[in-house]
């Protein structure tokens, strides 16, 4: 585990700079990304009570004391992942938890060059990106699938849309809920990588399972997930008809399959477009929500020269 965060003069400078930037740009919040522990009570005092502040760490242990200090905390469970991926996941979870405004700007503080040192402040403009991925929007879906399950799968789909697998675009289709009818309206497309594993080894809430699903997502066919988050089958060919369904021009076979299966069942389908990473959520044969991938270009990573505050 990384060393505890030291409350140095440099760290104080970055906090003050972030606060000034947040106020000047009317940003939704300041988000601190760190992969270690700290006296979060002291950090909260530096930030101040009236400044919207979010902490993103990798483990529950690192977050210890943050909630007691009144800090909104996101636990990423992404130990060892690149800074960009962790920061993106933090933003996704902050949006889904309604901690930041969709389409707004965010001030991020993190170690862009050294993991144990806060050395970078970025102003991130979300603009139109991810502006439909909110808990409020997901609650509008008339489904028995628990919100937490749906959020987890949508976030996984967005991750796949953003980064693909090993730098290659990946198209994916998840079908969630109403598993018996979905399985009845589909057939095996060949070897199923999830077959034979226990329920605990197929629980989508487990980060290791989600990593495995990213690999399976490269294979043809749909991934079927029960309402309680258990991956029931993969590589399934959906048999439901898409007759008399109208979709936007240019959508591919996965989208038509998603529309067909959600029209004849009570399931929700989540499709990742292979061409551009866009995520679409289907219900009742229609696109209900659309999530655009975040382009890396708007992210400005700049190492600031440290200037001690004047006495």
Structure commentary:
- With 311 residues, the chain is of the alpha/beta class.
- It has two domains: 9-125, Pyruvate Kinase, Chain: A, domain 1, CATH 3.40.1380.20; 135-291, 3-Layer(aba) Sandwich (YojJ-like (1).
- It is built from eight helices and twelve strands.
- It has helices at residues 9-25, 40-47, 83-96, 135-139, 147-163, 179-184, 207-216, 253-264; strands at residues 29-33, 53-57, 72-75, 105-110, 120-125, 172-176, 186-188, 222-225, 231-238, 268-272, 279-283, 286-291.
- The strands form two sheets. Strands 7-9-8-6-10-11-12 form a seven-stranded mixed sheet, with helices on both faces. Strands 3-2-1-4-5 form a five-stranded mixed sheet, sandwiched between helices.
- Strand 11 and strand 12 form a beta hairpin.
- The longest helix has 17 residues, at 9-25.
- The chain is elongated, with a radius of gyration of 21 Å.
Blueprint of the fold:
Layout: H1 9-25, E1 29-33, H2 40-47, E2 53-57, E3 72-75, H3 83-96, E4 105-110, E5 120-125, H4 135-139, H5 147-163, E6 172-176, H6 179-184, E7 186-188, H7 207-216, E8 222-225, E9 231-238, H8 253-264, E10 268-272, E11 279-283, E12 286-291
Parallel strand pairs: 1-2, 1-4, 2-3, 6-8
Antiparallel strand pairs: 4-5, 6-10, 7-9, 8-9, 10-11, 11-12
């Amino acid at each position: 585990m990384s060393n505890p965060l030291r409350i140095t003069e440099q760290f104080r400078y970055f906090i003050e700079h972030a606060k000034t930037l947040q106020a000047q740009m009317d940003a939704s919040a300041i988000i601190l990304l760190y992969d270690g522990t700290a006296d979060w009570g002291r950090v909260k005092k530096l930030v101040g009570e009236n400044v919207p502040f979010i902490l993103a760490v990798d483990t529950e242990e690192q977050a210890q004391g943050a909630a007691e200090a009144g800090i909104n905390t996101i636990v990423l469970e992404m130990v060892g992942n690149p800074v960009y991926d962790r920061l993106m996941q933090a933003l996704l979870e902050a949006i889904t938890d309604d901690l930041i405004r969709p389409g707004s700007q965010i001030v991020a503080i993190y170690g862009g060059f050294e993991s144990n040192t806060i050395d970078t402040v970025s102003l991130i403009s979300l603009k139109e990106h991810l502006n439909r991925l909110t808990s409020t929007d997901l609650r509008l879906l008339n489904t028995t699938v628990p919100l937490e399950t749906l959020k987890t799968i949508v976030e996984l789909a967005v991750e796949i849309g953003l980064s693909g697998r090993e730098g290659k675009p990946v198209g994916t289709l998840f079908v969630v809920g109403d598993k018996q009818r979905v399985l009845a309206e589909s057939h095996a497309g060949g070897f199923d990588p999830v077959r034979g594993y226990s329920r605990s080894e197929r629980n989508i809430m487990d980060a290791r399972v989600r990593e495995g699903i990213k690999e399976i997502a490269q294979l043809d066919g749909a991934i079927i997930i029960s309402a309680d988050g258990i991956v029931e089958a993969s590589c399934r060919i959906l048999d439901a008809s898409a007759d008399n369904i109208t979709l936007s021009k240019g959508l591919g076979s996965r989208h038509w399959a998603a529309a067909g299966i959600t029209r004849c069942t009570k399931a929700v389908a989540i499709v990742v477009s292979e061409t551009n990473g866009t995520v679409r959520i289907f219900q009742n044969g229609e696109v209900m929500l659309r999530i655009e991938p975040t382009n890396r270009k708007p992210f400005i990573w700049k190492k600031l020269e440290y200037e001690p505050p004047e006495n």
